[in-house]
Every structure is written in C-alpha cells, then in structure tokens.
Amino acid sequence: MRKSKPLYSGVVFAEEFVATTDVDLLWDSRAKIRLASTGDDTDFAGIMALLKRADRSFEIVENTPFRAANEDGFMVDLIRQTPNPPWKVEPNRFFENDLIATDIWNMKWLLSAPRVEQTVICENGRPARMVVPDPRAFALFKLWLSSSNEREPIKKRRDLHQAAAVFALVEQYLPQFPLSRAALKMFPAEIAQSMPVGTR
Questions:
Q1: What are 130-156's pLDDT values in tens digits?
Q2: Among residues 29, 24, 25, which one has the least CA distance to residue 88?
Q3: Which of 108, 142, 161, 166 lies 20 to 30 angstroms, CA to CA, from 19?
Q4: Which pLDDT score is estimated for 196?
C-alpha cells in the first residue's frame, strides 16, 4: 500500500490581531548563542548589525539601550529573564556597541516552555528557521498579559484577541498540542487554571 504524503496548511490571522510597530527578541542568556554570518566577520557586530542589514535606518534609541528603532518608528527590543538571584552576573549583550538586554521577571514561563522549530518562507521567497515557544504557552502568556496591571491598557485588548485566536488555532488544527493544564506546568497554578480546557 502506497504511503500517503503528509498534508500541510496555513492559517492567516486578521490584520488587527497581529498589527504592531514593535517586536521583542527573547534571549535565553543561560544558553550559548551562535550567530551565522557570510563574508568578512569584521563586518558583523551582533543584533544591530543584523538589523542594519535589513534596514540601514535602525539605530539604538537614546537612553533606551535595549531598543532599536528605524525611521518608520518600528522598534525592536532585546529582553531576557531577570537573573536568579537578581544580582547574579549574566551576559546582557552580544558585542560592544550592541543592544543591552532589559530584564523582565516573568520571561521564565516562556523560556521553560517546550520550543517549536519550523522552517517558514519569507516574503522574498527565502526559507528561515523559526524557534518559538509552545503555542499554548504563548496563548496563556497573552491571556495573562490581558489582565495584568503592568500592561499598557491599549495593548490589553490585542493581547486578549491574540490569546483567543491562538487557543482556537490549537484546538482546531494542532492535535499534537492538547489543551491540558498539565502541559503548562511551567506557569503558576492560578494562571494555568485560566486556560480553556480542550474538547479533543
């Protein structure tokens, strides 16, 4: 019997769910990182060099060393989990004159979640390797953000919509990720309990 080929599909989110003028780069400073470069290594100097290859107008924002912005106002922030204990010395940048990561206390939830690796196709047709947190962890984190007093009010509504959209995506199209609280034990119990339990 001939083996059937696996089927692949994609989902497109409504623009209002994903429209944003910033992106956060989450760095696990506990692990070593390797950045690949073609050509002369002297032309390579960390995150800022990568950003400038995409858009020459990117510059580090004055008095905000963890953020770079381009001439259109698009921002890129480098973030990491607050060291434990907080006074522990851990790397906070890749090279001199590069972005300096800012500490956020609850990034440990996403860093402890299983990672998903996938090759995606960019708008220019080139493949790119993406490494992201478990989609259930991302959705639960967004759900928590939507009710956090630390979050800007204007972003809370989008957080809630993004959480609902990803939970629905997982429930309908990703059977390999059952919606069970046991799968998200890296979150505090009171947060994990807010996740909608799947019907599969």
A1: 888 999 999 999 999 999 888 888 889
A2: 29
A3: 108
A4: 81
| CA 167/CA 195 separation, integer angstroms | 9
**What is the rounded distance in angstroms from the CA atom of residue 16 to the CA atom of residue 170?**
20
Whether residue 175 is preceded by a cis peptide bond, meaning omega within 30 degrees of 0, is: no
Phi and psi for 103 in degrees, rounded to 5?
A: -90, 135
Is-contact 67 48, C-beta < 8 A?
A: no
pTM for the whole thing? 0.76
What does the alpha-carbon distance between residue 99 and residue 113 come to, in Å, rounded to a whole number?
Answer: 25
CA-CA distance, 37 to 40, in Å (whole number)? 8
pLDDT mean over 38-56: 74
Distance from C-alpha of 182 to C-alpha of 89, rounded to nearest angstrom = 33
pLDDT band at 44 (very low <50, low <70, confident <90, very high): low
Residue 36 burial (C-beta neighbours within 10 Å; 0-12, 13-18, 19+): exposed
Residues 58 and 48 sit within 8 Å (Cβ to Cβ): yes
DSSP symbol at 170 = H
